């Protein structure tokens, strides 16, 4: 694996390989006072974020540090991006400084693909073979989020194949939804998207999943429900349904959560809008695996860096 730009870069065996590596890294670090492996000593990992992030940026930084890589964070504000430097020039500059891996988040769908094309084409000039990881591009994809969600589902449900997973809410603006549908279907899950018709993307009927509008009708048959963040920043001021209608129709209230089977897992990629997307009592209940998702994010991102920079383990 040279880059991780989309979950479609991974077939079932490759995705399972990353998840297995994440499990092994988790076990290797369990109970250790000093969480440091020598695996990526001498490697340089740069996060380059053009959009805000807490979970993804910090967990990639921790993942690199726990494997002894040198990690550097670049954000649009405070870098020469604010002086008008292009994504291409910025990425080639970082590659020329010796970045073994650039992890990029950008508001434009396709930005990570473009960046990978530039660093591949110009590697003779920059002198570095730089891997690119897509940490979220516009409304397109967020592959490491889907991998950490799959890791959490494997932990909680014992496996993914044959499980029924509901993904609920603002699918239109969600890169998390697209990556999860593709990855969960590749791993054999039965995926259903539940969303208001106004928050579904064109062409969703070609995705490998079913689409439904009535959440209450779906909940009793789900093994897991993934609530999506409403991406207000991509809606230019207004959206339909309103926040109140959204909460009534698609929010996971305590009454709604009671319709789920006892074993069902509740996921949310974060950051959550409590009260609209999910009731605080549900987010903090034993069924919720939201903080487990965050912890798994570190191990999964360690595994991704390992596969990219050290090669797939035996
Ligand atoms: N889930 C997710 O991508 O969170 P951040 O925006 O905090 O990275």
TrEMBL record:
Catalytic EC class: transferase
Keywords: Pyrimidine biosynthesis, Transferase
Aspartate/ornithine carbamoyltransferase Asp/Orn-binding domain sequence ranges: 162-308
Enzyme Commission number, as recorded: 2.1.3.2
SUPFAM superfamilies for this protein: Aspartate/ornithine carbamoyltransferase
Ligand binding (carbamoyl phosphate): 55-56, 105, 142, 145, 270-271
GO MF annotation, one: aspartate carbamoyltransferase activity
Gene3D superfamilies on file: Aspartate/ornithine carbamoyltransferase
Protein family membership: Belongs to the aspartate/ornithine carbamoyltransferase superfamily. ATCase family.
NCBIfam families reported in the protein's UniProt record: asp_carb_tr, PRK00856.1
Subunit and interaction comment: Heterododecamer (2C3:3R2) of six catalytic PyrB chains organized as two trimers (C3), and six regulatory PyrI chains organized as three dimers (R2).
Full protein name: Aspartate carbamoyltransferase
Species: Pseudonocardia xinjiangensis
Species classification: Bacteria, Bacillati, Actinomycetota, Actinomycetes, Pseudonocardiales
């Amino acid at each position: 694996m040279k880059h991780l730009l989309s979950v479609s870069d991974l077939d079932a065996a490759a995705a399972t390989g990353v998840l297995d590596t994440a499990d092994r890294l988790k076990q290797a670090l369990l109970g250790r006072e000093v969480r440091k492996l020598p695996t990526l000593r001498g490697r340089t990992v740069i996060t380059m974020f053009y959009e805000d992030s807490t979970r993804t940026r910090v967990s990639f930084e921790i993942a690199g540090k726990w494997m002894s890589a040198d990690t550097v964070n670049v954000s649009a504000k405070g870098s020469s991006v604010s002086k008008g430097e292009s994504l291409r020039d910025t990425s080639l500059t970082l590659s020329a400084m010796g970045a073994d891996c650039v992890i990029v988040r950008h508001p434009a769908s396709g930005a990570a693909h473009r960046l990978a094309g530039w660093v591949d084409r110009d590697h003779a000039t920059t002198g570095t073979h730089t891997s690119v990881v897509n940490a979220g591009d516009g409304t397109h994809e967020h592959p490491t989020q889907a991998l950490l969600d799959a890791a959490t589902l494997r932990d909680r449900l014992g496996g993914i194949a044959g499980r029924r997973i509901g993904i609920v809410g603002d699918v239109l603006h969600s890169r998390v939804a697209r990556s999860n549908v593709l990855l969960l279907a590749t791993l054999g899950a039965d995926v259903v998207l539940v969303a208001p018709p106004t928050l579904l993307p064109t062409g969703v009927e070609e995705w490998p999943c079913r689409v439904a509008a009535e959440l209450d009708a779906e909940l009793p048959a789900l093994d897991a429900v993934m609530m999506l963040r409403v991406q207000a920043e991509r809606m230019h001021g207004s959206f339909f349904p309103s926040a109140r209608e959204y909460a009534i129709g698609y929010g996971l209230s305590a009454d709604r959560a009671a319709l789920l089977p006892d074993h069902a897992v509740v996921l949310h990629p974060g950051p959550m809008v409590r009260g609209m997307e999910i009731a605080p009592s549900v987010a903090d209940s034993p069924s919720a695996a939201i903080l487990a998702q965050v912890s798994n994010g570190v191990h999964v991102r360690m595994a991704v860096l390992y596969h990219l920079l050290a090669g797939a383990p035996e």
